[in-house]
Amino acid sequence: MFEIRDNEPEYALLNDPSCKELNVYGDAIETVAENNLLRDKSLNINNDGAIGENPNRYKQHGFFFNADNCIACHACEAACSEKNDNPAHISFRSVGFVEGGTYPAYQRINISMACNHCDDPVCLKGCPTRAYTKYAEYGAVLQDPDICFGCGYCTWVCPYNAPQLDPVKGQVSKCNMCVDRLEVGLKPACVSACLGNALDFGVVENIPENRTQAKTEIPGFPRTDITHPNIRFQQTRTTQRDMSRVDQSPVKYHREENSENFKPVADAKPGVKREWNWKKLLGSHENAHIAFTLSAQTVIAAFLIMLSGYVFEPAAALLRGSAMLPGLLVMIVLMSFGLFKLNMHLGKPHRFYRGFYNLRHSPVSREIAGVSAFYTGLLGYGLFALLAVFDTGYTNYIQIVQIFFAAIGVLGAGFGGYFMYKLYRIEARPFWNHMNTATSFCATGLVLGSLLLAALVLVFSSMTMHLNEFLLTVIGFGLFVEIVGLISHARSLKSVSSEGAASYYLQTTRYGNAYWLRNGLLMLALLLTATMLFTGENSAIAYGLLVVITLVTNVIGRALFYVVVIPTTMPGAFFWKNDGFVEHAREVGLADMPQMGVAYEKHHAFEFGELLETIRTTTMKQKFTQLRSIFTG
Fold it and tell me: What sign for the dihedral angle of Cα 221, 222, 225, 231?
């Protein structure tokens, strides 16, 4: 247990003599009933079986931040990082600010933020490995880095940027509410270190002494309806109408007439022009997701279109022709490539199997399960399709098994495809949280899947008139769906007050040339498809041109999808928590200086060269010991 000093100051001690029953969201402050079996259990902090004597141990605690007092000294950051032994590039608590007005009426509001230990933690539900637990003790949301495999999905869904993905270790960690200090009656380290008495802590809704407000929002703080965060604010000074971020994010917060609430809107920077930015667009950290989603959607759609030949005559040629077996092989290779890229994108790729742990809640786990089922169905169908070529006398049985694997593939495609879309419907990322995500994913599958089949038929068989019309119709429909989805997306983003509007602004300025190139190529692809359909054109040259146009269109579109998204996160500062500075530091070498708080991304998949060297140079007992440590992390 944490040891209390003899001279511990009074402001560092917890003091909640009375508590309310409900918080402002209507949720119970008591975490478990008095007769619940979850009570009176040790947290086993540092393997100590003792139980804290805090009388409010089973009440929801939270932070109280007084923006009037914060001087941005960063003492809370330093105390938190020192206690948790964090490297310079990881900080569970960070101080950012927003500013408004001009001299002499300039105003700045500092905001200190860590994990808010929410009533409805979306990180817990989203994590596929079940690394998160909301404890009855203090209502703390704790995360175990040793369980995490580094997918980073919790960093996507959290509106407050609380979970921190370490690019060096390849795993996530976050604020643990200093539960070891709470057990002995002490406030968290960040609160005890605050110089201006801006931070306080206790049972939520208990307003500290000398405070007059306990608001749930402050300019720059994301919306609270997503998770019901356990933090309260005081900010009594009159603010400017517009408060801007100073980090790279083109977002500002606008207060409407006769209102105290600020809403995020796009911050159109003067002098910003339309650019290409190919390096940033195609050099994204999410390139593995681009490869996986494009390949998976292509293969899923191609497989389903091929199977439609059982009930739809124009597609029957895909099952009877000589292109079927090569087509299945190409699908398996392409799907394997996508799955490999996705797995190697994890911070801890050797822990991939943990992705199935949270099927009850996590859309990531459900996507993994569905795609795995589809991959199994595809492999099984391909294997028995190969066996059916040989006259073994068991043709009828082979066809039955083929249908069985086809059914698995169809069910897996439906389940995995739905959650491939569903996992991007994130409230904390408004640019993704739109039906355009579904239309884009479906359109990609219809267009690229049909073109894959057309290319295989042209190479290994012959294109019939009916099959040509069928495939071109599907391609045209997919392109039409994509265009309608993009128009709807653009209109909705222009009319909303959210970070989505800023994402759209970013898309049309910093990546504007690539954005309009994608749109132009999309219209060109639709025109070419319509021309081929009405003229009956089915030459390899025409299809080859269509493949190039649509492939470029989808790569640019998917890259934009990942690069321009702006989360509902807390504002940073000029250097700290500023994506623009992080990019600059990595480009010019400042990241080599640990004090800059920037690290290069490193991959922690074990190298096969190192594995072979281990086997060659060690004794048998050492081999097993080292191999076990590699595979268990």
Answer: negative
